[in-house]
Amino acid sequence: MDFDSLKTIAVVGLSNKPDRSSYTVAKYLQNCGYRIIPVNPTVDSVLGEKAYPDIDSIPADTIIDVVDIFRKPEAVMPFVRQAINRGDVRVIWMQEGVINEGAAEAARNAGLEVVMDKCILKEHQKCNLNY
Questions:
Q1: Which of 54, 47, 49 lies closest to 76, judged by CA?
Q2: What crossing angle do the helices spanning 21-31 and 120-127 adopt, rounded to 10°?
Q3: What confidence tier does 131 reach under pLDDT thresholds 50, 70, 90?
């Protein structure tokens, strides 16, 4: 994964509760310089960013590089379909424990890169170790 080419990450299921893993991961990514777009219909904003109820609600002029999904596997497909329909998303990232082979196949068939059952924070740290 070439993290250097990524700028904007839509975080599906981003909680406004600091003890939740979605919050911890998004805050880490934001601190690393990525723009975070919260996708959660139950909050107005998270980490100082306006939240959207779904991918379709994010303005079309906002380029999204990655859709990072913190949802149960059975809830993933609608977000993947929305990401595919946008045309700008390059990567679907399903966090640890999120495995949906059908959604992964649909994303790959649409030309998107898929990462499944991995934590984006941990993978970013692996790629950015300073020796």
A1: 54
A2: 30
A3: very low
Number of domains in the chain: 1
Report the C-alpha gap between 55 and 75 in whole angstroms.
13
Nearest alpha carbon to residue 71 among 93, 56, 86? 93
Position 32, amino acid: C
- Judge whether 79 and 54 are in contact, CB under 8 Å: yes
Residue 29, Cβ density class (10 Å: 0-12 exposed, 13-18 middle, ≥19 buried): buried
Q: What is the pLDDT of residues 76-114, one digit of tens each?
A: 999 999 999 999 999 999 999 999 999 999 999 999 999
Question: Which of 25, 19, 20 has the alpha carbon at shortest distance from 93?
Answer: 25
Task: Give the helix/strand (H/E) hosting 91.
Answer: strand 91-94
117 found inside a domain: yes
Question: For position 59, which CATH number holds?
Answer: 3.40.50.720
